[in-house]
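does this look right to u?? molybdenum atom version
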Amino acid sequence: MSEKIPPSEITPESVYFNRRNFIKAGVFAGSVAATGGIYRFFNPPPPPEVVTAPIESVKSAGFSTTEPPDSFETITTYNNYYEFSTSNACPARAAEGFVTRPWTIEVDGMVGKPRVFDIEELLRFEQEERIYRFRCVEAWSMVVPWTGFPLKKLLDMVEPLSTAKYVAFQTYYSGKTNHPDAKLPPGPNGMQSSFAAGIDLPYLEGLRMDEAMHPLTLLATGIYGKLMPNQNGAPIRLVVPWKYGFKSIKSVVKISLTDVQPPTTWNLAADDEYGFYSNVNPNVPHPRWSQAQERRLRDSRMQPTTIFNGYADEVASMYAGMDLVKDF
Ligand SMILES: Nc1nc2c(c(=O)[nH]1)N[C@H]1C(S)=C(S)[C@@H](COP(=O)(O)O)O[C@H]1N2
Ligand SMILES: [Mo]
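got this back:
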């Protein structure tokens, strides 16, 4: 499906940031009087290189859909990222100043070898392209060419104990969590208060162990072979293509293995509307709207929603014997 993308075509994030600072700096460049200042402005010292590994067209290419992906513009301008904004149009701007270096993911809990992974190490893992359908619980959908690696790869490295039954995930958070703080300006990185977001933060998610180890479950580090844009969950986010989009937690900083079902943000917010499993299911309506159809972002066409978002052949067996209406 995917061709090998040469590393040269992958924008190092440092370059990207520099370009942005360059544009920002341009606004007041006229007031920079000193020649030396202008020289340094146009000839900044070379940034440290941060480049993702070349994307292999791998064994797992069979997991990619043949449906055409949505444009980079669509994928990066219509988002859900409540830490920055509750409006779909806003995260692209609101997350502009989000600083994602340095970055680590701490993996702990019921594992033999708990450890902290640095993002630079994760970016050196072999990166694959996976073109997945993506279905939000709000009934819009798109097709995204993610790049990343199976979550299983990271979990295997920490050696899960046989007693571990679930995996809990946590997003980075630097906003103000208490209601009395709601009137304060956004916290570092522009994240808004939990009160303004209307959900408890930091954002939490969880998967059952078999779901987490499933070959479709991805830790994504990019889109279209470019490092993950801030609004899409830089520098690394989960992608679980057969579940509603809110399970695909962004900007992950902590992963814990546990033997109890972990709390999840949207389930805590409204447990009658958002279950732990949240598998895409046209037969189980949201209490306030039908899930039988979805609106494709690319052309606003309505189309039928498919069970497990079209990934039933790969994942349905994990739910054999379960009542998917009760365990929604
Ligand atoms: N931390 C965090 N992760 C999140 C969200 C969020 O608000 N915060 N929104 C979720 C929802 S509802 C969806 S549909 C997807 C949207 O991903 P996208 O913006 O890359 O399309 O991210 C999910 N992950
Ligand atoms: Mo969503």
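The radius of gyration is 20 Å. idk if thats expected tbh
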